[in-house]
């Protein structure tokens, strides 16, 4: 394993290869959003397995890093961690930087948090994907941040736009460890079709056979089986159940034992440490679940 520190002009081809596969082909980011003038001034990092380039990142002169990408077949093998450590080492020892910052995809928050990064709740879109700002003081040993962790983060969050709504939903799903209870009033809301939302829910369910996700919908309609969330339920039906309850009027997400997200007059509120509210809401959900009916479309497909 080798990490090469380089400039865009010297290694443009392998950098483009990795980023095109990960960001453009896999995540659907547009060519216009992916390529920018910052590549020309950035310091670039490429990880090689032998002669094959498999991961990359870049560091800008202002202390911002990004475009950290690992090819799919090399993930969960610590390549991302090695690359991030190389960026930090170069920033501290070669560039004299004390603080690193980034706009990170929300879906990758756990990765950065595990490496000592702190997050701000300034959610925003970048390339159609929910992001949040992260930072780390180099050379300082700090405790892992409790932000967005069930039973540790006592702050109340309010999302006033779609980016915040998607981000908090994904963060709650990523923080879940036991069970998620969902009520969705309108399955056609864009957030329920976003790849990162589906990925967060899928990661939660697939992590352990003891995990469970239950979903209540108010009604079904012809073609509901084509919705990506219902298709996900079909693939994971032993741990992801979906039923109908006509009285569902608004969205609610419960992450046992203490996470909750609900709509408010300002947008959506989220809490990661509200056991009392979650316990009461769970009782109501269980009563609704007892009175619910199976999806006819789902039954036809054998979900």
UniProtKB/TrEMBL annotation:
Taking every annotated instance into account, which residue ranges of this chain make up the domain N-acetyltransferase? Answer: 1-139
State the protein's name: N-acetyltransferase domain-containing protein
- Pfam families the record matches: Acetyltransf_7, DUF7931
- UniProt-listed InterPro entries: Acyl_CoA_acyltransferase (IPR016181), DUF7931 (IPR057691), GNAT_dom (IPR000182)
Indicate the transmembrane segments per the record.
none
Q: What is the lineage of its organism?
A: Bacteria, Pseudomonadati, Pseudomonadota, Gammaproteobacteria, Oceanospirillales
Select a single GO molecular function from the record's annotations and give it: acyltransferase activity, transferring groups other than amino-acyl groups
UniProt-listed CDD domains: NAT_SF
